[in-house]
Amino acid sequence: MLFKTFFLNPIRVCTYLLSDDEGNTLIVDCGCSNEKERERLKNYIADNHLTPQLHLLTHGHIDHIYGARFLYEEYGLLPHLHTADAFLFQRMPQQAALFGLPLEDSPLEEFVPLEDGQSLKLGLTEINLITTPGHTPGGVCYYIPACNMLFSGDTLFQQSIGRTDFSGGDYSTLIHSLQQLRQLPPETIVYPGHGLETTIRNELEYNPYL
């Protein structure tokens, strides 16, 4: 497996690329907001002879969906997104105006809807969807058992959790969602939407919200 993290756009979202031995590549939360960032991602993919196969979104906030049109136009990938966050995905210009962020591309309108309990595959590698609303109504995490990896988006951070004061956020819902992550193996490595990686073991010990 080949793994790479990019820190992109003004909010420094973590964009993750995971590739199997055949070069099949999963991209989580493509946050490219400008041409320079798009070139960085394209060059990495080309230099490593990778074939992007899946674009997974943890939720619909603008910093996580910036690169959706780029990946669709460059590689033909529609993003996978939980249907409960469709209202955010479809309001990208309004989000940009609200947070004072630049928006170079016109928004992508289509996405592949995710449903609760769904599983996906990257080649032979299984990806389990964990529905974790609270930061947004359609927030999800992606758990890959074979790699002991969890892409937690803005649900879980190192010793913290995502904000719940944005549209559709709810604190009690997020706290309830976190209980699902407590059940994962302690050695699971957590790759959040912002900041540094951690583990379930560390969060169980040091995160006051768990």
Task: Measure the end-to-end span.
Answer: 30 Å
Q: Shape from CA axes? A: globular
Number of strands: 14
**Segments where pLDDT lies below 50 for 5+ residues?**
none
Helix content class: 25-40%
| Neighbour order of strands in the largest sheet | 1-2-3-4-5-6
Major β-sheet profile = 6 strands, mixed
**Estimated radius of gyration:** 16 Å
Strand content: 25-35%
Helix/strand/pairing category: alpha/beta
Order of helices and strands: EEEHEHHEHHEEEEEEEHEEH
The tally of helices reads 7
Mean pLDDT: 96
Oligomer description: single chain
Descriptive tags:
alpha/beta; 7 helices; 27% helix; 6-stranded mixed beta sheet; 30% strand; 210 residues
Could you please describe the fold and organization of this structure?
- The structure is a single chain.
- With 210 residues, this protein is an alpha/beta fold.
- Helix content is 27%, strand content 30%.
- The chain has helices at 35-47, 62-65, 68-75, 86-89, 92-99, 171-182, 200-206, and strands spanning 2-8, 13-19, 24-28, 51-56, 79-82, 112-114, 119-122, 125-131, 140-144, 149-153, 156-157, 160-161, 189-192, 198-199.
- The strands form 3 sheets. The chain has a 6-stranded mixed β-sheet with strand order 1-2-3-4-5-6. Strands 7-8-9-10-13-14 form a 6-stranded mixed β-sheet.
- A hairpin with an 8-residue loop joins strand 8 and strand 9.
- The chain is globular.
- The model has no long low-confidence stretch (mean pLDDT 96).
